[in-house]
Amino acid sequence: MFETTVLPHLNSAYNLARWLTRNEHDAEDIVQEAFLRALRSFDTFVLGRDPRAWLLAIVRNSCRTWQRQNRSREAAVPLDDDSHVAVDAWSDPEAVLIKNANSQLLRSVLEELPFEYREVLILRELEELSYKEIAQIVEIPIGTVMSRLSRARKELYDRLGKATGEIEQ
Fold first, then answer.
1. Per-residue CA distances from 46 to 34, 35, 90, 116 (Å)
2. Domain locations along the chain
């Protein structure tokens, strides 16, 4: 039952942990710890509840625990992305370079955001969770999710604007 309910959400768990920790190796450790916690407490899982939201709440809490234990390391570790843009026969090399540059800029700016902003942006924009699901995961009211998400987006846009302004100058 655990395998069919929780394991399909492994990629989402890793994605969230990677963005919150900014390090793929720490994310792997956190996801492993989160899955152990989920397995140990699976008997408390309420049928009918969204298993992805339940698991992501455990991952988020594991990330918070990790952050408290590794605060000095966490601030200095950049996200290491080994993924590359696929280039097919019709790709424009200049377009690929621009896409890579934009992706790197967005990743860099997103990494600079405070944890609270980063987590709601990741959960909403990348994991496509509802406000209600985010509120359950982060354990805050829906109104706080909406306002935090609004502030996070504004901060992201402001920082992107400054970063692109610096590049153009």
1. 18, 17, 49, 27
2. 1-80, 90-169
Report the predicted TM-score, pTM, of the whole model to 2 decimal places.
Answer: 0.68
CA 96 to chain centre: 24
CATH dotted code for 1-80: 1.10.1740.10
Q: How many CA atoms lie within 13 A of 101 on its CB side?
A: 9
Least Cα distance to 119 among 143, 104, 137 occurs for: 137
pLDDT in tens, 6-34: 889 999 999 999 988 888 999 999 999 99
Second CATH level (architecture) for the domain 90-169? Orthogonal Bundle (1.10)
**Of 168, 156, 166, residue with least CA distance to 121:** 156
**Three-state secondary-structure class, residue 108:** helix
Amino acid symbol at 114 = P
Q: Which of 100, 101, 29, 102 is nearest to 66 (CA)?
A: 29
Question: pLDDT band for position 87 (50/70/90)?
Answer: very low
